Amino acid sequence: MLKEEELDLLISELSDQYGYDFTNYARASLKRRVNRLLLIDRFPSFAELIYRVKTDPAYLTHVVQELTVNVTEMFRDPALWKMIREQVLPVLATHPFIRVWHAGCSTGEEVYSMAILLEEANLLHKSLLYATDLNPSVIENIKKGIFPISQMKEYSENYIASGGKKDFSQYYMAKYEWAKFDERLKSKMIVATHNLVSDRSFNEFQLIFCRNVLIYFDKTLQDNVLNLFDDSLEKLGYLVLGAKENIRFSPIAKKYLQLQNREKIWRKMQ
Questions:
Q1: Which member of 7, 27, 93, 218 has the greatest number of CB atoms within 10 A?
Q2: Which homologous superfamily does the CATH classification assign to the domain defined by 78-268?
Q3: What percent of the chain has pLDDT over 70?
């Protein structure tokens, strides 16, 4: 099992040598992931791992991929997407142009879900979706728009539960084991690496998604990231978080109104 001083050494090395700052990530979660890394890559000791990190920059992508969380699906939590469809999109429709930020978007299932909602509301033509993640290898998938065909049945069920009325298969072309999504969805996406720990705001948005990312940060980092979102969100814009996340005890809480207790959508009121 990983010792605390070993975890500190790895965090320091990733920060000093590569600029990836995991200092304020939740310790227990980070420790579990490093232990998993030691196991799957069959390092006989922590010393072997730290040596590899220090001497092999190509190995870094793999380390970052293992230490960051990449679990997502299309129309995850359909009730939330139904609420976006019915309550948020009609407000966004009044804007001349719509900018949406998917922060910590992983492989992009959420971004494509949003593009489909905008398309069905006849808003995609005047929208831009900014898809960002710390991990450069996962966001490459967003540019391709290719997902396993085995997941389409579940995604189709989620889509219908979110209020979708069309045949979900019209949005992709199936080939062998893969589903390639329509180019018109991808054409409205801007994909980039962005580090929520160290990078700043880069635009003003009407809607920001950051789902199931904050739970892996400690309170200090959560507050910093929420302040970043507040700086990036225009007045009366919307912030969408994950099912176990909340802004109730954060510095920005007093400026926001939750739309509904069960669904994690807040509107910036001041």
A1: 7
A2: Vaccinia Virus protein VP39 (3.40.50.150)
A3: 99
